[in-house]
Amino acid sequence: xEPREGGPTRHPSYEGVWRFTAAAxxxxxxxxxxxxxxxxxxxxxxxxxxxxxxxxxxxxxxxTNAVRHAALLSPEIAVEVAIGPEWIRVSVEDNHPYRPxxxxxxxxxxxxxxxxxxxxxxxxxxGACDVEHTxxxxxxxxxxxxxxxxxxxxxxxxxxxxxxxxxxxPSAP
Length: 173
Fold this sequence. Notes:
Blueprint: E1 16-23, H1 28-43, H2 49-70, E2 76-83, E3 87-94, H3 114-125, E4 128-133, E5 139-146
Antiparallel strand pairs: 1-2, 2-3, 3-5, 4-5
């Protein structure tokens, strides 16, 4: 929607930032996924089905990683959802100081590819993901996706969005 000359900029009603906490236990994985899906439906976010599926898989992977690898030092995790006019960002914060790295695909390995999967989903959708340290010594892992799939031109590589932090103002581009 174009702002009127001299008038305030209007933002879609679905924009905002929501945060909830959960225990770092297995049952929190489907609960977080359902809570995020329910929030998006309740807010009326115009999210393309393909992006919704990828986003919910990202939520599952990030919460699973926090439950499996951070629960000892972080019995509680936080999930944050930030929605802008054209994008959505989810982040999972825990108090464990270890900053994981996405592993290379080793198909003989039975685990360890969650962050690789998150990175691939985000990049394929035209989004981004990263891991950041928190002021309390823990970490936040986030992924940002456009609300609709990007259609790259012939031979064009997907563009990286300008997303610098899971705490960026959701009205910023």
